[in-house]
Amino acid sequence: MSSDERSDAFELAEQLREKLLSEDPSVVGLNLGINCGQAAGQTIMHAHIHLIPRRDGDLLDPRGGVRGVIPDKMKY
Questions:
Q1: 50 in a domain, yes or no?
Q2: Does residue 14 belong to any structural domain of this protein?
Q3: Is the dihedral of CA 8, 10, 11, 12 positive or negative?
Q4: Which of 3, 35, 56, 67 is the most exposed place for a label (fewest CB within 10 A)?
Q5: In 3D, which of 44, 52, 49, 43 has the Cα closest to residue 70?
Q6: Structural domain of residue 45, as residue ranges?
Q7: How far apart are CA 37 and CA 43, in angstroms?
Q8: N-terminal to C-terminal alpha carbon distance within the chain
Q9: Listed residue (17, 35, 36, 12) closest to 27, CA to CA
Q10: What is the C-alpha separation between 20 and 32, in angstroms, rounded?
Q11: CATH code (residue 36)
């Protein structure tokens, strides 16, 4: 992504964060996930960002952030 594209993407993520927090009071945190490169787990080389709304108690142990947000999908 170019510098402008990255800036726009993060601005959009911030706008979506504000929308989520204002529309759903159960959302009390968010994970922002970006995989860049094969070594980071990216399998199809394209730009995308995961904005994952989090709620108190949605996982027994939220430590590890994005890596553990979908336990059934986690391999490590």
A1: yes
A2: yes
A3: positive
A4: 3
A5: 52
A6: 3-57
A7: 8
A8: 28
A9: 17
A10: 13
A11: 3.30.428.10
Q: What is the pLDDT along the chain (76 residues), one digit of tens a residue?
A: 889 999 999 999 999 999 999 999 999 999 888 888 888 778 888 888 889 899 998 877 777 666 555 666 665 4
Tokens of 7: 């800036």
Q: How many domains does the chain have?
A: 1
Q: Which two tokens stand for residue 31?
A: 């994970």
Phi, psi dihedrals of residue 28, rounded to the nearest 5°: -120, 0
Assess if residue 67 is contained within a domain. Answer: no
Q: How far is CA 59 from CA 16, 21, 31, 41, in A?
A: 22, 19, 13, 22
Contact 61, 68 (CB under 8 A): yes
